[in-house]
Amino acid sequence: MNSVSDLDSLSGESVVVIGGGFGGLSTACYLAHAGADVTVLEKNEQLGGRASTLERDGFTFDMGPSWYLMPDVFEQFFAYFGKSPEDYYGLTRLDPHYRIFFKDGDRVDMVPDLEKNREVFESYEPGAADKFDDYLRKSKRNYEIGMEHFVYKDRPNLRDYVDFDVLRYSWGLSLIGSMQDHVENYFDHPKLQQIMQYTLVFLGGAPNNTPALYNLMSHVDFNMGVYYPDGGLAGVVSAMVQLGEELGVEFHTDSPVTEIAGRRGGFAVRTEDGREFLCDQVVSDADYAHTEQELLPERKRQYSADYWESRTYAPSAYLLYLGVEGDVDELAHHTLVLPTQWDDHFEHIFDDPAWPDDPAYYLCVPSKTDDTVAPEGHSNLFVLVPIAAGLEDTPEQREAYRDLVLADIAEHTGVDLRDRIVVEESFCVNDFASRYNSTQGTALGLAHTLTQTALLRPGHASKKVDGLYFTGSFTTPGIGVPMCLISGQLTAEKMAEDAR
Length: 500
Hints:
CATH architecture of the largest domain: 3-Layer(bba) Sandwich
Number of helices: 16
Largest sheet: 7 strands, mixed
Strand order of the largest sheet: 7-6-15-16-17-14-18
């Protein structure tokens, strides 16, 4: 288990955490456990950040993250407080983990049984089963070493990498090159390459711009498994809020922050309704660029507007939340629909921003596992199409894309939803920007590109404002719910180090 550095130096400090996403909730719990007086200010009407829920006519939708991966991270988080996930929610391992419909008519399931997955790989390419074993061995090693020595340890400066331990543990890791290069070393068949790379969507990258180190996600996928927590990801949010309350954290929703004034020992955090929260230190789990550009005066910003304009952002998303009559037997809880060539889709996200004509997309049907999320005789599902951050998002464009996507689902999965929809809501670029103050409407944050990983991401501590810190998906270790949990630990450790 990765130990947490001593946080005792934070005892008695008063801290305001801006934003109640996973990074903010995690940081708040660590600080409160250390004896700090913690207040969380959340802009929206519910806690959870992008892990919001939408309730309509008996349907309950997870609006954001829906995959429960890396269960060890959740276990370690709760264990620090003398708890376990099972104290708050149950877990169901999904079978299949997910289903893939390729648009040439092919369909495969990835399942908990590794031998069956080996057979799938061998059916596409002679010798691929053995290469699958080799790939997972490498992935497992990368995961174990990467998590312990690079993910749970913040190394914000170049000098942090020039020591014997780093050199010893990084020997043989896939630190150089892209995921595309790495996967091509193992598999020739494009469908096998896609299976090994689909998780890049969750990291906000593409095969040619994501570091090869992230092959560790295949260990997460195949060896550790895919789970569904009771109540969806909202159930995990509720667990963290309950833990925070048990530790003494004070939560305020409907509290948009408009200004951060002062410095260590004398901060004033002001909200839209005129309230002022005085504290010793501040942590922002809000969008990093929004915090600097909108909540601080120019002289207190670490980065210019040009810096933020030059970053590569993880995709935004076109989302449809659908309540439909009847079952959707052909779909699994997690279903991916992939063109046999997906390069064009990634180009439309990162190189030539446009709404993709032949999209790769994801369907989530939690009612396959949880009968509380839809009325009897109905199915709950959402459609997620990754699209470029910053795309023009008009009602006319959404309507046209809705028709394209629903027709594509009918054609390639055999499930025609169009005459069965009883509840429908969409969410897209403009909504990410307005609801979450998300730069360019990104759904995730900064992409994990070769030039935006590890020490090349913005830091946890402001270089301009003493006592101001950051947590969440713009910082290390990066994007995704487990990473944001760990980000909370790293932020708390940095605060304790500075306090000492």
